[in-house]
Amino acid sequence: MDIIKLINLTKFYRGLKAVDDLNISVKEGVIFGFLGPNGAGKTTTIKMMAGILKPTSGSIIINGMDLEKEPSRVKGLCGFIPDRPFLYEKLTGLEFLNFLSGLYRLERSTSTNSRLMGLLDIFDLIDWKDELIEGYSHGMKQRLVMCGALVHDPRVLIVDEPMVGLDPKGARLVKDIFRRETDKGKTIFMSTHSLETAQEVCHELAIIQTGKVIARGTVEELIKDAGVDGNLENTFLKLTEGRGLSHDKPLSAP
Amino acid sequence: MTNLFLLLSPRVLGLKNSLINTKSGAKKKAFVTGAVAAAFWAALFVLSARMLIYFQSVEVIGDLLAHHLLSMALLTFFSLLVFSNILIALSNLYLSADLELCHSSPSGLEEVFLSRCAFTILDSSWMVSIFGLPVMMAYAWVYRPGPGFYIALAHAGLALAFIASAVGILIAMILVNLFPVHRTRDILMLLMLLIVIAVYILLRFLRPERLVDPDAFFTVMQYMSALKTTDSPFIPTHWATEILWGQLDKTARGGLLFETAMLWSTAAALIVIDLWVSGWIYLKGFSKAREARGRRAGGNILDIFIRIIKRPVKGDLASMTDKDIRIFFRDNTQWSQLLLLGALVLVYIYNFSVLPLEKSPIRLEFLQNILAFLNMGLAGFVLSAVSVRFVYPSVSVEGGAFWIIKSSPLDMGRFLWGKYLLSVGPMIVLGETLIILTNQFLHVSLFMMLLSSITMFFAVFGIVAMGIGLGAAYPRFKYENISQVSTGFGGLIYMIFSVLFMAVIILLEAIPVRIFFMAGMKWKNITTFQWLWIILAFLSVFLIIYFTALRFMKIGRQAIEEFE
Predict the structure, then answer these.
(1) Which residues of chain B lie closer than 8 angstroms to A130, CB-CB?
(2) Does A50 contact chain B (CB < 8 Å)?
(3) B131-145 pLDDT, tens per residue?
(4) Nearest CB to B406; choose among A52, A100, A101
(5) Does the CB of B295 have a partner CB in chain A at under 8 Å?
(6) Is residue B355 part of a domain?
């Protein structure tokens, strides 16, 4: 069953087409990787799916419900992890999670409380739960955001660049959690620049450029279709025609 | 020293670029700000000049008073300057975002330190020089000194600025080495606010209006003339006062070389001391300021308070209320403004307690009730001013974390009504306190007391709705300090709308008030036609408040739903 459907999704920004008639469907229980070069429209798409941006046209259907028509119900099913962890700096970690559990209408109960404690424990934040967020490092804030996104046990996780600011241990933790959540039937829609992460955890991928999907499939399918040897990096560069740093040009002026 | 100029260049280039690339909106804003500053400047000049002319007309002690005033003004400006230098030095030397780049560059420590000192002097001195200049110009206008006064003003002012900065920077360096930098800045800011409040209350309680009352004037004069010279000959403002007075008063002694030498040698010595001390402790303090700001967040009283406040609301709104109250009381820039608000209310009420009603030629009963009626407008204005600072920014206060609300299942209308409910209670308490206490001082009739307190009760619903609605229509999620939010275009629009709102209510209520008073004064009964007018006027007021509240909340909801 397709739990996420993006139908003819388009977004204009001051005359510029950031997302161009995007059509994507994602099956339940998979990690779907959303790749693309800078400015391709990944974050715009993700923010539309999270209900932060309004599409110019097209629709976002999650679990059979249209985000435009039933925003509260759809948002209640999703957890969102943005690329930059802006949080309420004057709350403690635990107060922030309590706030989110209220926002997502969870009962104030012992089970909710133990769930919050469990999440803090998993993300290695339990010792920091009573500290103000302003004292957290970037990586800790990112982990707290992830905790927050899982508070209401969402069916769909929408994730923008999850590995930014995480140390290797944190990155490993996040990958494990993503795998565990999909094993439980959850769906993860994730944009990332880290091709290594994408290759490692994603069941399926879509590559987007100038707002359009230019390739889609499993990692193996993409590598095969691109007709390149080796890994996802070469595939990605070929498909997006990116060259990276030119080896012909010297780094310093003569 | 090449690096010193390089380190200064980002500020210069930034200023140049912002002047070149100014957008039309920013130009308008700059024009309005400039006009307000010019009006303030002119008012301060006129006030100072009038006071000096008044002093001059008093034989024997007139000049003495002017001399005292100059000394007091310089001492006040200097103290403010030292204080603002400490605060600005904490930011410029320890907290600025670009400091890590500067310190990691091959520039010498001395060069980085000196460039930051230069920024500190500029950042702290311009405001005092702008506000001090009209007072000095008033002296020049009244005493007509020669060009020597202006030269003395420039060099003495510059020397005082150097001394104040050097003292401020030295204190800042010592404080950072003793206490955590963020805590020091918070405490100092609070201290400064308390000093401003104390000075404000003190000035008001001194009752300066008595200066224009001939009966009271001589008592005040005698008191002032009885004051002995307050400044010590060892403080820099004393030397600056003598230098300036030497130019203003023709009978005063000549060149004042001694004071000039004292002023500049002190400035030079303090700069050398700062450089010397910075070599010892600046880098140590800078490194300490980089350390994490872990702070335990206790507060059982806050928990109990929140539990009581959020009792009537449930679910997501209870969580919103909980979060908003915690953030408000933990953010020093927010709650400390309450102290200022308290002082404002205190002085507002005090003003009514000292109104010389008995001296008025108008019939007392009539005057009391007219004042009570006008007081509704004034209290409405005070409420709007408070609301523009506390209610209007309540959407913007979400800041960068607004994505959490926007991506949550919370409906935007519910989000705004939650903010509304949290604001309306305290605003009713404030409005009613203002109205009831001031009416008590005026000894108004029961009718006026009831009318104004009921009107204020309902008007608050409109004022708060306008604040929330316009705050959502003009949100500003990127800010350094939440008080900046109210100073924007939306804040101005809100003030205009709320003043108009109160004006319409008062105009409509003027009809029944007039009918009741005329009937009371002439011992006549109110006719059926008049009753009809009265009912119609009150009904209109009620409907205006009702529809204003709904309309502005709807505007806010639409705007925030569309916000990207």
Answers:
(1) 296-297
(2) yes
(3) 788 999 999 999 888
(4) A52
(5) yes
(6) yes
A88 in contact with chain B, both atoms CB, cutoff 8 A:
yes
Confidence at residue B445, expressed as pLDDT on a 0 to 100 scale: 82
Let me know whether B145 and B263 are in one domain: yes
Residue type at position B560: I
Q: How confident is the model at residue B180 (pLDDT cuts 50, 70, 90)?
A: confident
Under 8 Å CB-to-CB from A146, ≥6 apart: which residues? A81, A123, A162, A174, A177
Contact at CB, B319 and A52, closer than 8 angstroms: no
Contact B293 A73 (CB under 8 A): no
Helix (H/G/I), strand (E/B), else coil: B514: helix
**A103 found inside a domain:** no
Q: Please give the average per-residue pLDDT across B373-377, as a whole number.
A: 83
Å between A193 CA and nearest CA of chain B: 22
Which domain does A216 fall in, by range?
2-88+155-240
Please give the pLDDT value at position B274: 94
Predicted pLDDT of residue B209 = 58
Count of C-beta atoms within a 10 Å radius of residue A131: 20
Q: By CA distance, what is A70's nearest residue in B?
A: B409
For residue A35, the domain's CATH number is 3.40.50.300
- pLDDT tens digits, B13-26: 777 777 776 666 66
Cβ–Cβ contact B226 with A under 8 A? no
- Confidence check: pLDDT of B204 > 80: no
Bigger pLDDT: B487 vs B417: B417
Of residues B371 and A182, the one with the higher pLDDT is A182
Mutate to test the interface with B, among A47, A48, A86, A97 (most CBs of B within 10 A): A86
Q: How many domains does chain B have?
A: 2
Which helix or strand (DSSP H or E) is residue A212 part of? strand A212-217
Q: Clarify whether residues B75 and B145 are in a common domain.
A: yes
ipTM over 0.90 threshold = no
The answer to whether A7 touches A61, Cβ cutoff 8 Å, is yes
Domain presence at residue B38: no
Instruction: Give the residue with greater pLDDT, B340 vs B316.
Output: B316
Distance CA B249, CA B143 (A): 8
Question: Looking at the complex, does the CB of residue A242 fall below 8 Å from at least one CB of chain B?
Answer: no
Average confidence score pLDDT of chain B: 81
Among A90, A104, A132, which would you mutate to test the B interface (most chain B Cβ atoms within 10 Å of its Cβ)? A90
User: pLDDT grade, residue A253 (50/70/90)?
Assistant: very low
CA A105 to chain centre: 23
Whether residue B105 is found in the same domain as residue B238: yes
Domain that holds residue B128: 2-15+51-289
Residue B301, domain member (yes or no): no
Q: How many CB pairs under 8 A join A and B?
A: 96
A104 in a structural domain: no
Round to whole Å and give the CA distance between B418 and B414.
Answer: 6
In angstroms, the CA B158 to CA B461 distance is 52
Read off the tokens for A10: 């388009």
Q: Report yes or no on A254 lying in a domain.
A: no
**pTM for this one?**
0.69
Distances, alpha carbon B344 to alpha carbons B333, B338, B340, in Å: 17, 10, 6
Write the DSSP symbol of residue B394. Answer: G
Inter-chain CB proximity B316 and A103 less than 8 Å: yes
